[in-house]
């Protein structure tokens, strides 16, 4: 299924699909994740332990050519990454971290945010949002809207803001875009979706699940903390059910064997049918959210480079 959809999507660059053997760094990282992180991603492990383990990602090496500073939306604290080489001061990226809506933070995704900023040559605002189970849907969408409106309050036009996110952050990116279209605020310049979670029912996940990072039982355990069964058909909870008419250019990156591989495929199919300018880059043999390992794993570093190419195509047109 996914190969058929990939053929329909137009990649940002020729030859971005990975068909050769993965790098030694990727193979070592894949093995490391299977031995360390995947066992932690179990319903049997307390959420507090999982949150602590995820918080350690803040120590991932960051590029030296990006300035880090705190930035705040009333009631929320985030991080801003500003590259030394800023290409267009009128554009910015608003980014939402992943973590199943139950963990993660701008700090855990600090390396990824900095590298996207350097690749795109744009400031990246890593927005925080309230987590479940302490806060359930639509708290996260309310916070995302506040973050977007706050950037508008700084002088950015809606169509000069790119919105992006990974995993649950990709879900939130799509939910926010649907909400902005519904309220008439104005659509963003484009969407950047990394391993996006688009179907909260988890009824079409790969079988068997061979993702090195994300097991299905953890995802199924986390989802009810975020949204109830009655909310699963809400397109802002399961964006795979949405109508994407009028959506801006969108980049989707996913891995062929990850848990959410079909989520990306179905999203691309739906967007293509709606006439959206969607680019799908599916890398082979990698894991969910592998872009978090940019700077260490060459395939992840190259994926972030391609995100930069996509962003530049929007503000350089």
CATH topology: Rossmann fold
Rounded to an integer in angstroms, the radius of gyration calculated over CA atoms is: 18 Å
Ranges where pLDDT stays below 50 over 5 or more residues in a row are: 1-16
Distance between the termini: 33 Å
In a nutshell, what does this entry contain?
The chain has 317 residues and is α/β, with parallel strands linked by helices. Helices cover 37% and strands 15% of the residues.
Features:
single chain, 317 residues, alpha/beta, Rossmann fold, 8-stranded mixed beta sheet, 10 helices, 37% helix, disordered N terminus
Description:
The chain is an alpha/beta fold and 317 residues long. It has one domain (2-315): Rossmann fold (3-Layer(aba) Sandwich), CATH 3.40.50.1820. 37% of the residues lie in helices and 15% in strands. It is built from ten helices and eight strands. Strands 1-2-4-3-5-6-7-8 form an eight-stranded mixed β-sheet, with helices on both faces. Strand 1 (66-73) and strand 2 form a beta hairpin. Helix 6 packs across helix 7 (168-183).
Write the layout of secondary structure elements.
Elements: H1 2-8, H2 24-35, H3 37-40, H4 47-55, E1 66-73, E2 76-83, E3 92-96, H5 110-120, E4 124-127, H6 139-153, E5 161-166, H7 168-183, E6 190-194, H8 216-226, E7 250-255, H9 261-273, E8 278-283, H10 298-315
Parallel strand pairs: 3-4, 3-5, 5-6, 6-7, 7-8
Antiparallel strand pairs: 1-2, 2-4
Helix pairs in contact: 1-9, 5-10, 6-7
